[in-house]
Amino acid sequence: MSDFLTTIPALRGPVPLSHLLLPSFVHDGKHAVDATCGNGNDTVLLARLVGTSGHVWGFDIQQQALAETGSKLTKAGLDGRVTLLHTGHEELARHLAVPVHAVLFNLGYLPGGDRSVITLPDTTASALEQALQLLAPGGVVMVTVYPGHNGGSDEQAAVEAWAESLNPKIYHSWRMGQANVSETAPYLLLVQKAL
Ligand SMILES: C[S@@+](CC[C@H](N)C(=O)[O-])C[C@H]1O[C@@H](n2cnc3c(N)ncnc32)[C@H](O)[C@@H]1O
Description:
Helix content is 34%, strand content 23%.
C-alpha cells in the first residue's frame, strides 16, 4: 500500500488536509493539474495518484520552481506522468482540453524563493474560472489561500467572491479552516462539480 494511505496525517494547516482529501477524487488513469507547482510537493502527490495511465499538467511562472518540481519527479520516477509548463495558470485553457478530476492552487509565494513573486487576484480568478470549465463531474478545484502576506487579503477577497458566487446546484463550495489559529492563517477552499 502507498505511503499516503498508511501514514497518519498531521493536520497542521490546509496542505496536509488537501493531501488527505485528494485520493478520494484522483484515481488511476485520471487527469489532474497543479496550477502552482512551487517546490513540487503537490505535483508529486498528483503524479502518484494518476498512476501510469493518467497524466498531470503543472504550471509555474518561475523556472526555479519548475526545476525543483522536475527534480523531485525524476527522483520519484514519476517524470513521465507530468507535463511541466513554464507559463501562468491563466493560460490553463490554452494547454488543456481534457476533463480533469483535480486542479490544485497553492497561492502566494514560493517557499524559500523570491517573496515578491506572488499569485495575483486577476490571474488567479481567471484561472479558477478556466479550471471549473475543465472539471469532470465529481472533480474538484482545491485552493490553499494565504491571507497573511502583502497582497494576500486582496487575493483572498477575489477567491472568496468566486467561491461564494457558484451555483449550489452545480458546485459544492466548501471553506475549511482551523478554528484555533489566527484569522490570517492559511485555509482551504474546495469546490466540487456535482456528480
Ligand atoms: C505557494 S507556492 C506553491 C507551492 C507548491 N504547490 C508546493 O507543493 O511546493 C506558489 C507558486 O505559485 C507560482 N505562481 C505565481 N504566479 C503564478 C501564475 N500566474 N501561474 C502559475 N504559477 C504562479 C509561484 O512562482 C510559486 O512557485
